[in-house]
Structures are given as structure tokens and as C-alpha cells.
Amino acid sequence: GSLITDVGVGAAYYSERTGHLTYVRVPEGEEINNAELTGLLQAVQHAANPEDILHIFTDSLTSLRQMRRWIFGPVGDAGSYTTALLSSMVQALRRRAHRVGIHKHRAHVGK
Fold first, then answer.
1. Main-chain phi, psi angles of 75, to 5 degrees
2. Banded model confidence at residue 88, pLDDT cuts 50, 70, 90
3. DSSP 8-state assignment for residue 97
4. What is the 3-state secondary structure (H, E, C) of 4-70?
5. Is the pLDDT of residue 94 over 70?
């Protein structure tokens, strides 16, 4: 997900296997969507075993739609940070031996 702090925009991902929460920063001036994509990319890249099936949950429908469009027909500004993130995501997904499920879940849901 995305995180806004006094130092800018970032992302975090949580590993259920290790119980560890990891924070990552995005370059200054980047927007929330790129923070979301960064968190998703980091989660795929740092998953322990590429032989395991991986499930990732996100509340970012925009990120999911961008990734899907990029996988089926990459079109974008060749020099943009978003394009670099999406290209890296496709490469990371292709390096995994088994499928990766990226699922949408509702955010900020009360009790």
C-alpha cells in the first residue's frame, strides 16, 4: 500500500510467512499510484521462494488495472517511472516458477 509521511510518499508490504513489515521509499515527486506499484513490485521481488505459489493482496484497483493492461499490451512513456515499474513487475512475475495471485481487497473497512 501507500504511505504518506513527513518525508514523502512510500510503500510497505507485509510477509505473513515471516511476520515482517517492510517499508520502501519512492523517488521524491512520485505519486501515490507509483507508491502502490512499488509496494507490489517489492513484494513479488522479495518473496522467499520463486517455486512457491504467491498471493498478494492490495486495495489499489488502479494498480491492478495498470498491471493487467501492461501484461496484455504494454504502452506507455518510455522514460517514465510508472513504465519502469510496470516493466519490472512483468519481469519479476515471469521469473517465478508458479503463478502469482494478486487480489483486490477493500481498504479501511471497519469492524
1. -140, 125
2. very high
3. S
4. EECCEEEEEEEECCCCEEEEEECCCCCCHHHHHHHHHHHHHHCCCCCCCCEEEEECCHHHHHHHHHH
5. yes
Tell me how far the alpha carbon of residue 84 is from its chain's centroid. Answer: 12
pLDDT tens, position by position, 35-52? 889 989 988 888 867 778
Cell numbers at 35, concatenated? 507508491
**In this structure, what C-alpha cell is assigned to residue 100?**
502469482
Provide the whole-model pTM. Answer: 0.82
Distance CA 25, CA 103 (A): 23
Q: Please report, rounded to a whole number, the percentage of residues in the chain having pLDDT higher than 70.
A: 89
